[in-house]
Amino acid sequence: MDYDSWNRVLTEHFFPLREAAAPVYLSVDDALLTELLTSHTQAATTPPTAAENFQTAIRSRVFGRDPFEGIASRARRWRRHGAAGDPPFIALLAATVLAASRMRSDNTAVGRFSYYGPLRELLGLHKGSGMPDGYDVIVPTLWGHLKWWLTEHEQGRRGLPSAIPHPTQVNIGWSLSQAVLVGSDRVQVGLFLSAIGAQPGDSVPEAELLARLQEWVRLNRPSPRIQRALASPELRPLLASVLQQELAHYDGLPRNSAGLPYVPLSLTTDAGGFPYSIAARIPSHLRLESLSLNGDIVRVPSGAEWLPITPPDEKVTPGSALELAADTATLMLPAGDLYVLQANDLVGKWTSVNTAEIGVPHRVLVRTSFAAQAEAVMLACGSDAVRQPRRVQVPDGWTLFRDYTPTRTTTVRGVVGPLAPLHQQLARLSGGLRIDGGKQTYLLGYAPDLVLPATSDDHPRTITIDGVPLPPVSPVSTDTITIRLADRVRCVGEHQIEVENRKLTFTLVERYRESVALPLLALPPRSDKLATIPSRVPNSASPSAPAPWLPPGHLSGSFFGSYQRDPLPATSLLRLGGSIYALGRNRLAAQLAPEAPAWIATMDHVPHAIDIEPLLGALPFQALWLLQVTSSQNARAWRAPIVQPDSYGAPSGSWTILSQADWRRLTSGNFTTTAVACAQDWTDYTAGK
């Protein structure tokens, strides 16, 4: 393939349209070149052939005394003319990353980087040594073009930039950052963040992330890239920056290189032994309607937290990893040497969980080689003596314990760490009345608790709430410390918790109260056509969408109706959408224009409704019908609930009865009544009978 062909293939591979805006790593090595060349030429090849093909293509554009200027000129023209087509510099940036991957393979030892040697060899720049002419200006500029294209031109639809400068290696840091991890490593980083209890919007210092990753790597089986980067003093700063970047975009789920989520699977069992099965834990913010597995469609019930799944043809066995590809997600059960099981009423079985909980009975399935260590940890966590069930059949080489109910936590390392409640967890927010669809948004009066895991530190933690320090909290025992924030934070707005270097942010909002304008449809226009003015109704689903247009002469006031706690009759709750009118006798009509509070407008997928009854009670006339106009040709009419208004009768001087023509305009069109029996009543009503 020539340069343009490689450029196109690399762009398609790394930057396709994706489901979620996630960081993209332009990670290129010899194995990937072989895969791409084979798939696009339909011919078998070997790594040297693929590398030589790519090398020849790059050298056809990078040469001479100013080797990068040709591609730099194309990049400037491409951006100046609206960035039409693929960015012309992807293959060159890929070559700089390939040189970084080769450098890291040849120089795993501590010391300075030897980057420019592999780069010159790849580009064919044999004359001279060190940094090629123009590299320090053009290559960082090209990374800037890529960032602009992804964030501003494509608006994240093809991913987000991940290249970052090195703290000391300013010129080559951009390419080095892409060689630290490959796209497939994103899943393992997501698993790591999930294991330490990271939550969307968290802020964790880089040093703490690295320290916790070091422990996580000891207990898990991450990729060789992650292990090498963690072991290299030169690459550790880049790895820390990558972890921070992933944390900034973390939504609570591991994701693959295309941004598709990995839904965690749990091992399930009737009593702790054979047969074993699986169930998916569906996060509340992941809106899955169905999953396609092996051609079968699995429906996901609305609001489901757990979804039992029929395992594949092979039997599910403890200790083995399982990965199922679905259309919108990947289901994954990691390999393990220990499973902590809890009784799950939603699944009706014992289900594996990430870590044990204080006060909750568990069963523990562990490899026999770790059984004695596990039993010692369970006793250290305050549990009574555990026993091994006699009539439960477990796999060879495994031991099952029952009656494990921890009463405290302790510091435990190694495979049996999950037996200690909150093992390796960060300080976190727990509980509270969280608003669905929001990032750490809670209802006023129902703030979450701050949970501090066990620590072996001898000094007390420093905790501040909105900059005000709390009295010292010392770990007098190994028990978890819980601080009720609802007793300390009593005002709406954003609040920040600092636990030493860790920052947690949450927002409190008021209970939903509707602000409703009550304009009169009056003041007939002088012309035959009805003039229009924009309403004040916001579109809560899309704040940038234009507001609907309403008839003229709106004389509006407003009032507040409380959103009631008690369940209301279905007829009195109305989902927002379209224009809503209350119709009375003698062609009296008023529009009910709900205005959602600002905090709802900023959140996605938050269903809300207005309470019709107090609105009708505030009208100056008796409402007989409710009318919801969703378009110029479609509307829905139904009888208004029987409500005793505060005061009604003849309108005051500021209210005017609609003209016959205006009334016909309002009540004409394709109407749907809520019941067939009401159809004739509606016809009689609009005819004035």
Protein architecture, described:
It is a single chain. This protein is 27% helix and 21% strand. It has 689 residues and is an alpha+beta fold. The strands form eight sheets. Strands 3, 4, 7, 8, 9, 10, 11, 12 and 13 form a nine-stranded mixed sheet that branches. Strands 25-22-28-27-30-31-32 form a seven-stranded mixed sheet. A hairpin with a 6-residue loop joins strand 3 and strand 4. It starts with a helix and ends with a helix. The model is unreliable at 105-111, 514-577 and 648-653 (pLDDT under 50).
Low-confidence stretches: 105-111, 514-577, 648-653
Put simply, the count of helices is 17
Radius of gyration: 32 Å
Annotation, overall tally of beta strands: 32
Q: Percent range for helical residues?
A: 25-40%
Content of β-strand: 15-25%
**Average pLDDT, all residues:** 75
Largest sheet: 9 strands, mixed
The oligomeric state is: single chain
Overall structural class, as computed from helix and strand content, comes to alpha+beta
First and last CA, distance: 80 Å
Shape: globular
